[in-house]
Amino acid sequence: MADSVLYSREGHVGRLTINVPERHNSLGAEQLVAIQEHLDAVSADRQVRVLILTGAGDKTFCAGASLQELGAGAIGADCFRATTARLAGLAVPTICALNGNVFGAGVELALSCDFRLGVEGSRMRVPAAAIGICYPSSGVQRLVQGLGLNVARRILLAAEEFDAGGMLEIGFLDYLVLPGKFTASTSELAHQIAGLAPLAVRSMKNVLGQVLAGAVDEGQVRELTALCAGSADFREGLAAQREKRPPRFSGN
Hints:
By secondary structure, the chain is of the alpha/beta class. The protein has helices at about 30-45, 65-70, 75-90, 105-110, 130, 135-145, 150-155, 165-170, 180-195, 200-215, 220-230, 230-245, and strands at about 5-10, 15-20, 50-55, 60, 95, 100-105, 115-120, 125, 160-165, 175. Strands 1-2-3-5-7-10 form a 6-stranded mixed beta sheet, sandwiched between helices. Strands 4-6-8-9 form a 4-stranded mixed beta sheet.
């Protein structure tokens, strides 16, 4: 299935699009491998300061795993774990722009991003219990870490469906906009982040990840702090403050 995952970069903003709208952007082995390959390319490109992950069309961001491939044993927990871990471990901030409904493993994919922006009228559900699937431990852990144990119970054990307001209330969404403002709001958030000091943003994302994992390497944190303090970006940030102008960060 050619071009089932698309990647492009405009300036400092990368965009990864799941491009299978005819099957609600569900994920099979081809899509999962393609996402990993594109993430490798993003990691190698120092021009990328923020990545947007979205889906094609205006109905569904991602319907989760391809049930056909799942039932045939063509995909399993390991492939999803590798993909979500690669996404969560990306050095630059990530925005999941949920262009519509999100189901199953698509929820885990979205939670692997740093920010989630959704649209009014969308729905979210993980139907594992309704299908007879025991959700993989890595996915359970991501749900608990991202949303808390009580919400994870509602999502997994009760297979509860959430509307857009509910997604915002439980903290799954950081931002909720009208469909007509979706594209502009996504772009505005991405460019806001891309305009910040890249070294500082990457360093703080690193530290946040360590805090979430419950194991902070204080020596590494001191190194990151010193790196930012001695950077050209820090000098530029101070100069921009003094001169009352927008900063022009180079990432050095």
